[in-house]
Every structure is written in structure tokens, then in C-alpha cells.
Amino acid sequence: MTQPDVTIRGAGIFGLAIAHACARRGARVRVVDPGGPGAGASGGIVGALAPHTPENWNEKKAFQFDSLIMAGSFWDEVEHRSGRPSGYGRLGRLQPVDGDRALALADERAQGAARLWQGLACWQVIAADDAGDWAPLSPSGRLIRDTLSARLHPAQACAALAAAVTAQGGSIVPDAEPATGRPEVWATGHAGLLALSAETGRPVGTGVKGQAALLRLDRRGAPQLFAGGLHVVPHSDGTVAIGSTSERDYDDPAATDGQLDDVLARARAAVPALGGAPVIGRWAGVRPRARSRAPMLGPHPTRAGVFIANGGFKIGFGMAPKVAEVMADLVLDGRDVIPAGFRVEDNL
């Protein structure tokens, strides 16, 4: 059997996106995951690709901006190669403005977006009435609308990426021995962060549980909403996802409970249009959060020929196109363009 040029351990969003980026450059790719594509946190239901606020600009925000701009062409190519939908759509986002102070801040951020988003997207304040019935309640009667936010369906996106990888000659297997002398990328989620913490004796990261719900409500083509810390994301299949919790202490990583019921109640109170839409799915999973809160990318601190791509946390899908590009640069070409704050050593 022909040995792969690159082995990627972990078939979540980072692992699959890196496999796709390497395969499209001509590398023979093998992805190893006992659970299969999207078996962990990447197989969720929310899929909100939303930017950080356009202020206090730094390398993390610039990296995320680049990745969100890249996302349209990235997912177009994945869908073309795989013949499968990702659920991607850049339809923007609406969020309420609570009062005069929040309105002044929103106006300042609109000016920041005009400078920082390079004319490729905007952040603006609009009248709540202009949004129709699909909007969160806003005490000020105003909403923030940004045109950079996008959405996708996480499970569909992982399935499409997996199919794109195999269409380019790659393989996805449940287990495999290392290919001697060939590079590996470990994109192994929160379990990988805990293992690296144990190996180095330092807390490089952990897992944070999230719970989300899926409603039967057809608002395809509508923007996502963000209110009270909750994402409300209409999908192209006629469902709406609502999430999520952030739980550091939990007993069962896959169980949903009363905390999700509270999320649903808060969402319905904030967005009247959700009304009596029935809940058709409940999901829970553990997302990898690196100590730096940014994705953790680069060479493994103790293992030659091994690279790490982990810590996507809540922004992994939005970061994936750019993460895939810089990791392919590093692994295949030896070109290190990983920004400060994203490096493995920043978490040690």
C-alpha cells in the first residue's frame, strides 16, 4: 500500500480542512479517526460563522477576518469536488442595541469596520422595523447588521469535506500506524489538549461543553441572530439552530439537560418569531479551548515530524479556511506564517 505524504489524526473541522488543503496541492493524504468525520464537537448543529467586533484590532481578529472572507470560495470548491452541500451562506447577522451607550458603541464599531474590513463587508445600525419579523427584540428600536457573518451546517460541512478529500485520492480510516518519516498533523480536539497538558505538565487547554437545539422552522435565506449571548441560525434545510451553553464542569459530555431548556426559553423570549416552532433535535458536545483562546497551530513541542492544529473552540468553522492554508504551507512547504498568539508555544 502506498504510504501517505501526510497523516492527519482527527476528522473534525480542522483535520478535514487541512486534509483538503494538502490534497488540493497534490499530497497523498490519510485522515485517521475512530469515530469518522465530524464525530466530535464538529458534528454539531449551530454553525455560526461570526466575526469579532471591529475594534482593538489584533492578529487574531485579522486572521479571522481573512478566513471569513476566504470562506465563500473555500466552501464552493468543497461542494464542487464533493458534490455535497455544506450549508454555507453568507447572509449576515442581526443583534439588538440595548440603549444609548450601546448605540454610541455600535456607531464607533461601524466606523472601525469601514477602516478594517477593507470595503468587503459592513457593520451598520438599522431600524428594527427594517428587519421585519425576523429580528431579536431591541430596547432601543435599533439593530446592528453586519454582512460578514455567515452560516453553515456543521455535520453537512464535515461530510462534504470528507467526500472532497476522498474525491482527490485521500483516505479516511478508523486507525493506522504512523508512516515512518512522514509528517503527521494532530487535530484531535479536547482529548488532544488534555493529552498535551499531561505530557508537558502544563495546562495548554481543556474542553468546554456546549448544548444546542434544532427547531423545525423554515427561515432559509434569513440572517442569523445574536441576542443575549445566544446564536439563532437558520439553515438551508428548513431548520433553525439555537445555541449554546458553555460548561466547564459536566458529568456526561453528550447529555442535554435543563440548561438547554433555559437556552430555548431565553431564545424564544428574545426572538418572538421562534414562537411555537417544535424542537426536533438536541445536541451536546465538548469543544476544544486552548489556553490562549486562539487556535493552537505549529510543531509539536516534543515530537519531531508532528504538528498540532487544535483549539478551534467556538470559532473553528470560521477559522478553518485560513488554518488549513497556513498548516498546508507549514507541513508541505516548510513555510511558517503562523501569527503570534496562535503558536503552540504561546500555550506552554
From TrEMBL:
Q: Where are the transmembrane segments?
A: none
Q: For the FAD dependent oxidoreductase domain, which residue ranges apply? A: 5-330
Looking up Pfam families in the UniProt record yields: DAO
Gene3D superfamilies (UniProt xref)? D-Amino Acid Oxidase, subunit A, domain 2, FAD/NAD(P)-binding domain
Q: Which domain of life is it from?
A: Bacteria
List the source organism: Meridianimarinicoccus roseus
- Signal peptide region: none
Q: According to its record, what are the GO cellular component terms?
A: cytoplasm
Q: Which UniProt keywords apply?
A: Oxidoreductase
> What is the name of the protein in this document?
FAD-dependent oxidoreductase
Tell me one GO molecular function of this protein: oxidoreductase activity
